[in-house]
Amino acid sequence: MAMQEPTFFILTALAGQPLHGYGVIRAVADLSGGRITLRAGTLYAALDRLTEEGLLVLDREEAVDGRLRRYYRLTDDGGAALSAEADRMRANAAMATARLRRIAFGPAS
């Protein structure tokens, strides 16, 4: 089953390094060219779900200005899921590109 785009970008953001929630929000906005803007409630629900699914794990917690900041990181299963989704997307793009070339250049003689 295809991964939802916000999930893909959350996992991609965490592929580089552990991040706290606001860091994930900023990274997703940057990686998506501003197309995806996550709200805190949506993000934390996704982080909880991805943690339950074993794709993320809580890396550490630290107190900053009296607030608890949780850092999440990708698990091996999360990396595998992200890699599989990237492969799926690459295969779909290759198929679409091949079909578009046939339209643009006509059938081979």
Quick description:
The protein is of the alpha+beta class. It is built from 4 helices and 3 strands; from the N terminus they run H-E-H-H-E-E-H.
Indicate the topology.
Layout: H1 5-16, E1 19-20, H2 21-31, H3 40-52, E2 56-64, E3 67-74, H4 76-105
Antiparallel strand pairs: 1-3, 2-3
Helix pairs in contact: 1-2, 1-4
Task: Give the terminus-to-terminus CA distance.
Answer: 37 Å
What proportion of the residues form beta strands (DSSP E)? Answer: 15-25%
By oligomeric state, this entry counts as single chain
Structural class: alpha+beta
Main sheet properties: 3 strands, antiparallel
Rough shape? elongated
Q: Count of helices? A: 4
What is the arithmetic mean of pLDDT? 93
| Structure summary, number of beta strands | 3
In which order are the strands of the major sheet placed?
A: 1-3-2
Q: Any low-confidence stretches, pLDDT <50, length ≥5?
A: none
H/E series, N to C? Answer: HEHHEEH
Rg, Å, rounded: 18 Å
The helix content, as a percent range, equals 55-70%
